[in-house]
Amino acid sequence: MSVKIRLQRHGKKGKPFYWIIAADARAKRDGKYLDKIGTYNPNENPAVIDLDIDSAVKWLQNGAQPTDTVRAILSYKGAMLKNHLAGGVAKGALTEEQAEEKFKAWVAEKEGKVSTKEEKLAQANVKAKEDALAAEKVVNEARIEAAKPVVEEVIEKVAAEEATQEVATETIDDAAAQASKEETKA
Quick one: pLDDT band at residue 131, thresholds 50, 70, 90? Predict the structure, then answer.
């Protein structure tokens, strides 16, 4: 039986989510599998990969062949390096402690690179938000400037209407006062 380490698709249309599995090469893509090694979510930036490295190394040592995409994922997470170092230990070129030390150093360096990328992405997001806010302020200021003549016209109309209402109330008050004087005279 030929064993492949490959991706099994899950998720919904347009939003894939993959399981990294060890399966018989003759099995369907989403069919039966022998072991679930991890998950891969390409929808986020950077992609989220959760991998059981020891299980992956065990399958690689037993002869499982990874697909091209899974080989890249295993290499990215260090499973291929750990398999290579385990081969060196088996041949006697390295001790178990030296191999573990090399692997830990590689993982620390890789985590530094990933955290740097995440920081750069976060900074880019903050800068994009700031740029969008600045552009929105410019648009709002332009709208305010464009609306000033209209607002001034409305204010002038309201002031003119208030003035005519005051004149009308004064004339009505004067007429009422004269009428009351005439009544008192009569």
Answer: very high
pTM over 0.85, yes/no: no
**Structural domains of the chain, with CATH:** 3-94 (3.30.1320.10)
Strand partners, 51: 38
185 pLDDT above the threshold of 70: no
pLDDT at 56 over 70: yes
CB within 8 Å of 66: residues ≥ 6 apart: 4, 5, 6, 60, 74
Rg (CA), the chain: 39
Q: Which residue has the higher pLDDT, 105 or 172?
A: 105
Contact 8, 29 (CB under 8 A): yes
Q: Among positive and negative, which fits the CA dihedral 108, 112, 113, 115? A: positive
- Cα–chain center distance at 24: 36
Question: Which residues lie below 8 Å from residue 15, measured CB to CB, with a gap of 6+?
Answer: 43
Which parts of the chain fold into alpha helices (H)? 53-61, 68-77, 79-91, 96-185
Distance from C-alpha of 183 to C-alpha of 1, rounded to nearest angstrom: 122
